[in-house]
Amino acid sequence: MRVIAGSVRGMKLAAPRGMQTRPTADRVREALFSIVASRRDLEEAQVLDICAGTGSLGIEALSRGAAFCCFVEHDRHVQAVLEKNVEATGFTARSQILTLDCLKALRLLASQGRRFDVAFFDPPYASALYDTVPEAVGGLSLLADDGVLIVECAARNPLPERVGTLIKCDRRVYGDTALEFFMLEDA
C-alpha cells in the first residue's frame, strides 16, 4: 500500500500482520480522493480519520495538503503501526493520534470545540459502529458547516439516507466496497 499523490507520493505504508485491519484498496482510495478533489480543496483542511488503522486515508489527505489530521484508532497494536506510518511520512507535527474508543474520542473532540472539513470513517464491515458513529459525528457538531463525512462500507449494506443531522449526498460502489458521502442537512 502506497501513498497515491502529493508530497509523499509513492511512499510505502506499513500494515499490521493478520486480519486486524482492512486497508482501503489503492483504486478505491484514488477514486475517493478524486471525488473529494472535485468538491473541495484539501489545502489547509482539517481532517478526521475514524477507525484509522494504518492511517492511509488521513496520510493521503495530509500528502495532498491538508493542514491537520486527527487519527482515531482504539487497537494499541494497530496504533503502533499508525504511529510508524505518520512518523515515516514526516507528518507528526500535523497529526494527532487518539488511542480511544471511537465514541469517547468523538466526545473528547467535541468538548474541545473541534470541527473538521473532511471526516473518514472506515470500520470493519461487520462493525456495530455503523449504527452509532455517523450519528455522533453530526450530533456532536464535529463537521464544519460545509464538511463531509465519508463512510466506507460493504456495498451490500448501504447506510440510511438520513443519519441524525446528516443526509447522504452521494454513494459510489467499487466491487464489494461502497463509499457513502454525508453532509449536514442544512449545508
TrEMBL record:
Enzyme nomenclature, EC number: 2.1.1.171
Q: Give one Pfam family.
A: Cons_hypoth95
Source domain of life is Bacteria
Query: Which controlled-vocabulary keywords does the entry list?
Result: Methyltransferase, Transferase
Q: Is Protein biosynthesis set as a keyword in this record?
A: no
Molecular-function annotations in GO: 16S rRNA (guanine(966)-N(2))-methyltransferase activity; nucleic acid binding
SUPFAM superfamilies documented for this protein: S-adenosyl-L-methionine-dependent methyltransferases
Instruction: Return the InterPro entries for the record.
Output: DNA_methylase_N6_adenine_CS (IPR002052), RNA_MeTrfase_RsmD (IPR004398), SAM-dependent_MTases_sf (IPR029063)
Q: What class of enzyme is it?
A: transferase
Q: Which PANTHER family match?
A: METHYLTRANSFERASE
The protein depicted here goes by the name: 16S rRNA (Guanine(966)-N(2))-methyltransferase RsmD
Report the source organism: Oryzomonas rubra
Protein's gene: rsmD
